[in-house]
Amino acid sequence: MKKLINDPMNVVPEALEGMAKAHPDLIKVHFNPNFVYRADAPRPGKVAVISGGGSGHEPMHVGFVGYGMLDAACPGAVFTSPTPDQMYEAAKMVHGGAGILMIVKNYAGDVMNFDMAADLLRGEGFQVESVLIADDVAVESSLYSQGRRGTGTTVLAEKILGAAAERGYDLQRLAALGRRVAENGRSMGMALTSCTVPHVGKPTFELGEDEMEIGIGIHGEPGRYREPLKKADEIVERLMEPILKDLPFKAGDRVICMVNSMGGTPLSELYIVYRKVAEICEKSGIQIVRNLVGAYITSLEMAGTSITLLRADDEMLELWDHPVKTPALRWGM
Amino acid sequence: MPVMRDDVVAWLERCAAVLEENRDYLTQLDAAIGDADHGANMDRGFKAFMAKLPSVADKDIGTILKTLGMTLVATVGGAGGPLYGTFFLQLGVKTANKLMLTPEDWAEALEAGINGVIARGQARPGDKTMVDALLPALEAFKEAIRNGDSFGKALQRMAEAAEQGMKATIPMVARKGRASYLGERSAGHQDPGATSSYLILKAAADTWANAT
């Protein structure tokens, strides 16, 4: 293992210490339990928007704390769900008296830990709602499994819901909007290389020099299939086809499109991917009205990409354009 | 003698010892169909509780069990933390302010714990989870008490049923948690959660063998 670290066991706290020093105007970091929260929290009268998940996906979620996005984010150990005491303490720190909205990705551990935190908070009289993101079309939806994984749509949901909370949406309206975003977002990813969890010390899976994994999960979980490496345009076709078919996206739809790096893929390659995504959308009559191209939801140093499309209505677009100021996403202010 | 507060403490100490002994075994079971951390997670959780035990060992049974539940929730992580945390928190709710447990108290507490696990994890019997060890164990315990068995004897029946339930998970196809992504490939492996549940109930039966 070759990593720019001091101690595999201290990766999460040392990264948080660095974040706190880099962005003292935007965020504060609380340790034991660990969470990142807005420097100006609590915001009275505003619904507190909270998320979290395993570390190793940065900038998600800790990089999205700040004005117009999250009030707090709870980072677990690398690729491991945070524990309820983190969400519980974070919520108590940032709530502004208008309730708490939790944005949760659909993994068994995440769902249960957030549910428990919600129960603890409700037990103390807080109003809590949660929005579940389950957008990964690589997992066939089934009654007989945990269901789809939560991936790229989470980033878009955090932006849109954060803006809505800033504009004064109440908790019920915010939760309803969150469910609409979750229902209209679809993602799929692929890997060129594996990644190495620091405290494990060896690659999560083996992938040959000439192979790729289509449908990879953000923790290196197996995808739909493995095959010889193809050209970028063909890879994009393999990701876009199941995404478009699933919702389905139709001619006339307006979408927010995210082309995301899994961590190790450079921006130039992401633009090669975006070029083909844009071409496919154009041919299908789908209008990309906003986009994000970059590393937003990663899997450590894995090379690869994921594509997310969100069918957006006027309300979502207006909220998308609302100013945001976080360590990883900033515009309009 | 019913089960006294010190017997509950002895049970939890035994749980910690048994989970430490079986740490690698549980992790191996988990490596086959999950993410290979169940043994280490449970061991870490119970070790954290053992560090706190001296500060609550003279409190009521409910306080002791609730402290265990909260400790597991905060230290185990993954799915095991909330599930076992809920189990012991519910046991603690039902035994609040008690300094001893009758067979009826234990049946009621165990049932609440299992209902908490089911509500938290949404697992049904046959999904290849800890529920497959816990539910038959509860039924066997209640039946034994109805049939006039002693507390200790009924606990023995409970542990036997948990063991059978644990073994019955081997051919099952997982429908919950990370193992469910494997689909048919999860069959042929014993569920690690059902295994740790058996170990915890077996520890109770062994520690409280002479309860009446």
CATH class of chain B: Mainly Alpha
Largest beta sheet of chain B: what is the strand line-up? 1-2
Question: How many domains in all of chain B?
Answer: 1
Radius of gyration of chain A: 19 Å
The H-and-E topology of chain B, N to C, reads as EHHHHHEHHHH
Count of discrete alpha- or pi-helical segments spanning 4 or more residues of chain B? 9
Give the count of helical stretches of chain A.
Answer: 8
Strand order of the largest sheet of chain A: 1-2-4-3-5-6
Residues in β-strands, percent of chain B: under 5%
Shape of chain B: globular
Protein name (chain B): PEP-dependent dihydroxyacetone kinase, ADP-binding subunit DhaL
Pfam families (chain B): Dak2
InterPro entries (chain B): DhaK_L_YcgS, DhaL_dom, DhaL_dom_sf, Dihydroxyacetone_Kinase
EC number (chain B): 2.7.-.-
What do these coordinates show?
The complex is a heterodimer of chains A (333) and B (212). Chain A has 333 residues and is α/β, with parallel strands linked by helices. Chain A folds into two domains: 8-184, Dihydroxyacetone kinase, domain 1 (Rossmann fold, 3-Layer(aba) Sandwich), CATH 3.40.50.10440; 185-318, Hypothetical Protein Tm841, Chain: A,domain 3, CATH 3.30.1180. Chain A is 32% helix and 23% strand. In chain A, strands 1-2-4-3-5-6 form a six-stranded mixed β-sheet, with helices on both faces. Chain A is globular and about 55 Å long. By secondary structure, chain B is mostly helical. Chain B has one domain (3-207): Alpha Horseshoe (Serine Threonine Protein Phosphatase 5, Tetratricopeptide repeat). Chain B contains nine helices and two strands; from the N terminus they run βαααααβαααα. Chain B has helices at residues 5-21, 23-33, 38-56, 61-75, 80-94, 103-121, 131-146, 151-168, 192-207, and strands spanning 3-4, 100-101. Chain B has a two-stranded antiparallel ribbon with strand order 1-2. In chain B, α2 (23-33) runs antiparallel to α9. At the A-B interface, α3 of A face α4 and α5 of B.
